[in-house]
Amino acid sequence: MSPTARSLQYLRALGYKAEVVEKTIPKTFIKKDLWGADILAVKSGELILAVQCTSGSNVSARIQKLNENGFTQLWKSVGVSIEVWGWRKAGPRGQRKVWQLRREAL
Question: Residue 29: its pLDDT value, please?
C-alpha cells in the first residue's frame, strides 16, 4: 500500500471526506501534485486539510520543497492547513513491525 493510499484510509477513519488530488501524467511515470498536496480532506468544524504523503525518511525533504516552492504560504493564505505525513514500519527489536505515522504541520 502506498503512503497516499495509507493516508487516505487513515483520514477516512478519522471522519474526513478525503480525495486524492495528485495525478499521473499520461504515458509517463510522472506524478503531479496540486500545489504540493496529494490529498485534500474536509471535516465539519475544521479547516480544510492539504496533505503531502511520503515515506518516513523523506518528510524533511518534502517540507523543504513545500517551503521553497511557496506552497506552504499559498495554502495558509487561503485558510487551508498543510501537513506532511510520513509512513514507516517500526517497533521494538525482535517484535513485529507496524506502520507508524509521523505528522508534521506546517
Answer: 86
pLDDT along the chain (106 residues), means of 10: 95 97 90 94 96 96 96 96 97 93 96
Letter string b/e over residues 71-99, b meaning 16 or more CB atoms within 10 A of that residue's CB? bbeebeeeebebbbbbbbeeeeeeeeeee
In the numeric block, which cell numbers belong to residue 102? 509521523
Which alpha helices (DSSP H) does the chain contain, by range? 3-13, 59-68, 71-77
Return the bridge partners of 87, or none. 55, 101
- Burial label for 46, CB within 10 Å (0-12, 13-18, 19+), is exposed
SS3 86: strand
Kindly give the pairing relationship between strand 39-42 and strand 49-55.
antiparallel
pTM value?
A: 0.91
Residues forming beta bridges with residue 105, ordered by sequence position = 83
Q: What is the mean pLDDT of the chain?
A: 95
